[in-house]
Structure formats: C-alpha cells, structure tokens
Amino acid sequence: MKATGQEVTIVMIEDDEGHARLIEKNVRRAGVNNEIVPFTLGKGALDYILGPDRDGLVSKDRYLLILLDLNLPDMSGLDILEKIKTNEHTRRMPVVVLTTTDDEREIQKCYDLGANVYITKPVDYDGFSTAIRNLGLFFSVIQVP
Q: Considering only the top CATH level, what class is 2-140?
C-alpha cells in the first residue's frame, strides 16, 4: 500500500493480543505488507500519531492508516478518533474502527466523527480484507494537499 509513492504505515490500536494477532494475520492475508505499529493504550498511540504535545505536526508528511479498537483500558477510542479527525495534520488519515458493539448510535457517532470504515468484531475476515484493500486503493489516489 503506497500513497503517492510513499509507504503507508498501519497503526493498530488494540489492547487484546489475540485480536491484534488475528488482525495482523488478515492484513497480511489481504496482501498488505506494510509496517504495522501496534499500540495497546490510547495515550501511546496518540503520542505517536499527534506527538506528545498533540499538535499533529509529527504526522504532517506521514501516511498512516489507523486501525482503532474503541474499548481501550486507558481511554475511549471515540476520544482518539475525535482527536485525530479534528487535527489539521491528521484529519485526512483513514480510520478503521474495530469494536465488539453493533450499537447503531455508537456506529453513527463514529461516522459523525469521521471514521472511514466501521467493522464489528469478531470480524468477518473476507469483509475485513476487502475493506483494507479498498483503503489501499483509497491511499493510492490520495492527493497530497
């Protein structure tokens, strides 16, 4: 997966090790060989994505695809989603929300905050692979502002 010639890094924010392994396995099975940077806590992930001071400058020229679990031990995935999507440097990053709930209101809230794809766990992996591949296509046509 490349965006205008640049490699895309996949940031996986998932505290359940079993789920994380399954997700990685299926990303690979979808033919995506990009680097995966795993986080089990929201704070570490936000440090990586937005920088310790949260200004987002650290990601100005990075292409990241975020795989986000909503239920993290240290903070809500919704808060992370909102912080990513309201920052000028990271708001265009595609975010795939992975969660165990299929609560319509929560799904709608994710889309309202700017999530690109919402996938319910346990994940239907054919659907997941398709979603990841489609995001790869999405990346290949991203225009750098």
A: alpha beta
